[in-house]
Automatic annotation (TrEMBL):
Residues 12-208 form the Metallo-beta-lactamase domain. InterPro entries: Metallo-B-lactamas, NDM-1-like, RibonucZ/Hydroxyglut_hydro. This is MBL fold metallo-hydrolase. CDD domains: metallo-hydrolase-like_MBL-fold. It comes from the Bacteria.
């Protein structure tokens, strides 16, 4: 038996606490400014039990910034993520972007002060594709799923048919729309999307979302595959008809930056991601 609880400290900084009969793990760790609230939420669920792991699906500021605060609250907690995520989290230029994006998110949430611990972000356990994290009664297999970032990792529990997904598969934008999150490469992202879709998950924890089971799980995966391909199809048609980067960006934003998404992601962060996605797509379309 296990439970999964959204313990995120603020909308957009979702993090999920997985409690098993053995070890406990936090999936992603949210923003810096809301880490204090997240720690309190975790303590409420754990009732004195320790937090054993933080499993990072990738190194973006809204997923990884809270880890340093968790290591202060639970000194024994080990942060796990891919080798590429480790490299990014230790890189001064990436830390500067994380700090800036965290400040922006805090400002939008009306938070003036919070302690910045970005320089202490790191990964203790590097996981590669196929590596196992042993939570006692539950074993999680790391699945490399690059596409959103190079460092994206999903976690898979075969016995429970449970997929702890990452953003490469996409983010639920509401009404059956799943927003593609490819920033590194379309072909690369689709390989990962197909790999995750083929696992046969019966339950899926979606990033920024919730635990979907049964039919809603199957629909999310089907919609994720559809929208990942569909936007590329539309972009390719657009490029063939002479559309430029700004026009395609506009089209992407209209489709996917729904009011539902706006609750989860500040416009500045959305635009920053888009500034990688559209030129990347255009490059792949022109190269094909
Ligand atoms: Zn991300």
């Amino acid at each position: 038996m296990y439970s999964i609880t959204n313990v995120g400290g603020a909308p957009g900084g979702e993090a999920f606490l997985l409690v098993t009969g053995g070890k406990t793990a936090l999936i992603d760790s949210g923003f810096s400014y809301s880490a204090g609230r997240m720690a309190a939420n975790i303590k409420d669920v754990l009732q004195g039990r320790p937090l054993d792991y933080v499993l990072l699906t990738h190194s973006h500021y809204d997923h990884a910034s809270g880890s340093a605060y968790m290591q202060d609250a639970w000194p024994g907690v080990k942060v796990a993520g891919s080798a590429y995520a480790k490299k990014i989290l230790e890189k001064p230029s990436a830390r500067a972007v994380m700090r800036e994006m965290n400040d922006n998110a805090a400002r939008l949430a009306g938070v003036d002060t919070y302690e910045d611990r970005t320089d202490r972000l790191h990964i203790d356990i590097t996981v590669s594709d196929g590596d196992m994290i042993d939570l006692g009664p539950m074993k999680l297999q790391a699945i490399a799923a690059p596409g959103h970032t190079k460092c994206c990792t999903a976690f898979w529990c075969e016995e429970e048919k449970l997929l702890l997904s990452c953003e490469t598969l996409g983010v639920d934008a509401g009404n059956g729309v799943v927003m593609p999150c490819y920033m590194v490469g379309y072909g690369l992202a689709m390989q990962s999307v197909e790999k995750l879709a083929a696992l046969g998950a019966e339950k899926i924890l979606t990033p920024h979302g919730s635990l979907l089971e049964g039919r809603t799980c199957a629909e999310f995966i089907k919609n994720a595959v559809y929208w990942n391909k569909e936007f590329m199809r539309r972009a390719a048609a657009g490029v063939r008809s002479g559309k430029g980067e700004a026009e395609l960006a506009c089209e992407f934003k209209e489709l996917f930056y729904t009011p539902f998404m706006a609750e989860l992601q500040p416009e500045k962060a959305f635009d920053l991601n888009l500034s990688y996605t559209v030129p990347m797509l255009m490059k792949e379309i022109r190269g094909n």
